[in-house]
Amino acid sequence: MIRVQYFARYREALGLDGEQLAWEPGWRCLDDVRRRLLARGGAWEVLADANLMCARNQELCALDTALAEGDEIAFFPTVTGG
Amino acid sequence: MTIRVQPAAFDPGAELNALHAAQVGIGAVVGFVGYVRDFNDGRDVSGLFLEHYPGMTEKALGAIADDAQQRWPLLRVEVLHRVGALQPGEPIVFVGVASAHRQAAFEACAFIMDQLKTRAPFWKKETTPDGARWVEGRASDLDAAQRWRER
């Protein structure tokens, strides 16, 4: 299993703040999960956002960052704090 | 180092004074306070909601403060950020840095804010006369964070 979290504009578009996904042996990096989610179509197109940011185990990372079973990952738009 | 993420309002003056309290080796304290404005991108703003990523937020702010302490000889660092519902005019963020001399304090404070803007998982949603809207990230914030890489 992995935990996937969504925030802000993405969370609203998806109507979902997070979910558990069954681990797929072919997954190597965060982008593999993102592409699996995009294949759901409809509102999931929001994850095609050019400004998408992501995190693995609560640290910012790149989409090609390696992934492991049990990870918590997150997809979110550009941060706007401060 | 003190990292606080809280819905409650705070007093920036009290935070600034506390940074110096009882440590006479401190020669310089620099504080930054960010406030909620009542106007942004051509629209009146009547309220702001701050969403964040509990857990990651505290880690990200801690990592930024650690980076600052690696770069400059700092005696104290505080980062305080509000979350939840805010009104125009309220303080939203406080960064305070104490050091023996001013240069380190000035630079570290600017560094922390530039990094916070681009690395800490906060998202602003504004209430405007046309409804609520998510604030978009700014390229100028990325440029500001980038400039520290060259040093």
From TrEMBL, chain A:
Instruction: Note the superkingdom of the native organism.
Output: Bacteria
Keywords assigned? Nucleotide-binding
Where does the sequence pass through the membrane?
A: none
Q: Does the keyword Nucleotide-binding apply?
A: yes
Q: Name one GO molecular function term.
A: nucleotide binding
Which CDD domains does the entry mention? Ubl_MoaD (cd00754)
GO BP, sorted A to Z: Mo-molybdopterin cofactor biosynthetic process
GO CC term, one of those recorded: molybdopterin adenylyltransferase complex
**What's one Pfam family the UniProt record gives for this protein?**
ThiS
Checking InterPro entries in the record gives: Beta-grasp_dom_sf (IPR012675), MOCS2A (IPR044672), Mopterin_synth/thiamin_S_b (IPR016155), ThiS/MoaD-like (IPR003749)
Q: Which family does it belong to?
A: Belongs to the MoaD family.
PANTHER family (alphabetical) = MOLYBDOPTERIN SYNTHASE SULFUR CARRIER SUBUNIT
Q: What is this protein called?
A: Molybdopterin synthase sulfur carrier subunit
State the species of origin.
Answer: Pseudomonas mangiferae
From TrEMBL, chain B:
Report the InterPro entries cross-referenced here.
Answer: MoaE_sf (IPR036563), Mopterin_biosynth_MoaE (IPR003448)
Which terms are listed as keywords in the entry?
Answer: Molybdenum cofactor biosynthesis, Transferase
Q: According to the lineage, what is the superkingdom?
A: Bacteria
Which reactions fall under this protein's catalytic activity? 2 [molybdopterin-synthase sulfur-carrier protein]-C-terminal-Gly-aminoethanethioate + cyclic pyranopterin phosphate + H2O = molybdopterin + 2 [molybdopterin-synthase sulfur-carrier protein]-C-terminal Gly-Gly + 2 H(+)
Q: Name one GO biological process term.
A: Mo-molybdopterin cofactor biosynthetic process
What enzyme category does the UniProt record give? transferase
In terms of Pfam families, this protein maps to:
MoaE (PF02391)
User: Which Gene3D superfamilies is this protein grouped with?
Assistant: Molybdopterin biosynthesis MoaE subunit
> What is the E.C. number?
2.8.1.12
Respond yes or no to whether keyword Magnesium is given for this record. no
Its UniProt pathway annotation is:
Cofactor biosynthesis; molybdopterin biosynthesis
GO molecular function per UniProt: molybdopterin synthase activity
Subunit-level organization: Heterotetramer of 2 MoaD subunits and 2 MoaE subunits. Also stable as homodimer. The enzyme changes between these two forms during catalysis.
Family the entry assigns: Belongs to the MoaE family.
Against PANTHER family, the record matches this protein to: MOLYBDOPTERIN SYNTHASE RELATED
What is the name of the protein in this document? Molybdopterin synthase catalytic subunit
Q: Which organism was this protein described from? A: Pseudomonas mangiferae
